[in-house]
Specification:
By secondary structure, the protein is an alpha/beta fold. The chain contains 18 helices and 21 strands. The strands form 6 sheets. Strands 1, 2, 3, 4, 5, 6 and 19 form a 7-stranded mixed sheet that branches. A 5-stranded parallel sheet has the order 8-15-9-10-11. A 3-stranded antiparallel sheet has the order 12-13-14, with no helix packed on it. The chain is globular and about 65 Å long. The protein starts with 15 loop residues before the first strand and ends with a helix. About 50% of the residues are buried.
């Protein structure tokens, strides 16, 4: 069911009012709340989790010392930001699942079984990133998770595997999680990396940026060195990845070093980078562009993060992948911009406060082109063979989608009509990018010309009973 409600449409009563409503309690959301509150704006921050931190700092406010030690200093750095947010005076609505944001800046959410809404003068979307789909044969088997999901279990509850695990794909998170698992005493059967010589040759063109961002480069090299010291087996340039097992995962098959290989494990963790979570900005019909460097859709914003929908901003990884510190800086900039729109901060003062933030942000982004080039996901792992399931909710394969194209399907929205692809509970989060690229490949066109699913509320599942009792 998809529908769009205007202010008061569901209740006939006015919503709670606030200067700034922020969705997402990660680094961008917390920093935005702190900045807006500092300059006198009333702020409400809504987040699904029971405590602030987002995914990157998940569980930071309750993490025991042993877990902080395992997860490392980058995770621990979130404690100061969470503390500043708690002291900011912003109203924090935890356990709040936002299911609609309107162009009129009304935010509808579900909390404790009740549906409520808040009317804001400015809305800041700080919904972060989500892991890129990794559709390979067997990826839907029990025992296959994303590396991000496994890390969430470690951050949120200290849960870690007891049997040997395989980590496969590409990207910094693969090595970070491996390092954290080594510190937690988790046996690692292998790290299977798809990065090859061509990736290094492409990345070396951005060596200047990598050297300018040497601290990030040094961090990555130290993680890899620690893994090698721990005796973790490495396989480079892996191709032909497929999960082994009948009914459940039993290992990973692939080719590396000119030979076919197999690593046995009941748990396979896949990862090939993260992409912006753009569900809300798409639902607002904001303009988006295809980012060829990061192979994903990104919303178009001005220098302060404002969309072409007035009064609605995007900050953090939901506007483009930059990392936790960049997300916090973008959140602070958006908070300053919102305070200025509200008349609580002069534009000249805003610009003066923003200048050092922008300078710091540029410093953190120097290495981004190098990382994007080095860890560019392989086409075979983004545009799968016919038999591989693409839409997990509706069990639609890549071959099904190519068949739709063969009989006239031109884009993702038509694919819904042909076979319900993207119409399941995830609303295309798990398949949207893959569907765009599969159709683009089949039609011989760039993804930018294919488009994306038309996202409609409810963004998160909600029952008619809950909707009828909005309070």
């Amino acid at each position: 069911m998809a529908f769009e409600a205007s202010p008061q449409a569901t209740t006939g009563r006015p919503a709670d009012t606030v200067d700034v409503a922020i969705i997402g309690a990660g680094p961008a959301g917390m920093a935005a709340a702190i900045a807006a509150r500092k300059h006198g704006a009333s702020v409400v921050l809504l987040d699904e989790q029971p405590a602030a931190g987002g995914q990157i700092y998940r569980g930071i406010t309750q993490a025991p010392a042993a877990r902080l030690d395992i997860l490392g200093p980058d995770y621990g750095a979130g404690a100061a930001l969470a503390g500043d947010f708690a002291a900011s005076g912003a109203r924090h609505l935890s356990g709040a699942a936002v299911w609609q944001v309107t162009a009129e800046r009304q935010v509808h959410y579900l909390q404790d079984g009740g549906v409520r809404s808040v009317q804001a003068a400015c809305v800041l979307l700080c919904t972060g990133a989500m892991e890129r789909p990794f559709p390979i044969p067997g990826w839907t088997l029990p025992g296959v998770l994303t590396a991000g999901a496994a890390q969430i279990l470690l951050k949120g509850s200290g849960m870690a595997p007891t049997q040997p695990v395989v980590l496969a794909g590409c990207g910094p998170l693969l090595y970070l999680l491996g390092w954290q698992y080594v510190r937690a005493g988790v046996p690692i059967a292998a790290i299977v990396d798809t990065t090859d010589g061509a990736d290094y040759r492409r990345a070396i063109r951005h060596a200047g940026g990598a050297l300018a961002g040497w601290r990030y480069l040094q961090k990555g090299l130290s993680l890899m060195a620690a893994l090698r010291k721990a005796g973790v087996p490495f396989y480079k340039g892996a191709t032909g990845l497929h999960v082994l097992g009948d009914g459940k995962a039993s290992g990973l098959g692939f080719a590396s070093g000119g030979a076919l290989r197999k690593v046995d494990s009941p748990l396979v963790l896949l990862h090939q980078g993260v992409v912006p979570n753009t569900q809300f900005s798409w639902s607002l019909r904001a303009k988006h562009v295809w980012d060829e460097a990061q192979l994903c859709w990104s919303p178009v914003t001005d220098a302060w993060g404002e969309l072409d929908v007035p009064g609605i901003f995007v900050a953090g990884d939901s506007s483009g992948i930059g990392g936790a510190r960049v997300a916090a800086l973008q959140g602070e900039l958006a908070g300053l911009a919102a305070a200025t729109q509200l008349g609580k901060l002069a534009a000249t003062t805003r610009d003066s406060l923003a200048a050092p933030l922008r300078a710091e942000m540029r410093g953190h982004l120097f290495i981004r082109p190098f990382l994007d080039a080095l860890y560019r996901p392989k086409k075979a792992n983004r545009v799968p063979a016919d038999a591989t399931i693409v839409c997990r909710c509706e069990e639609v394969t890549a071959g099904d989608i190519r068949g739709y194209v063969g009989i006239g399907c031109t884009g993702p929205n038509q694919a819904k009509s042909f076979g319900r692809c993207g119409m399941g509970p995830c609303q295309g989060r798990q398949c949207g990018l893959t569907v765009t690229e599969v159709i683009a490949d089949a039609r011989g066109l760039p993804p930018a010309e294919i488009g994306y699913f038309r996202i409609r509320p409810p963004i998160k599942p909600i029952t008619l009973g809950e909707l009828a009792h909005e309070s």
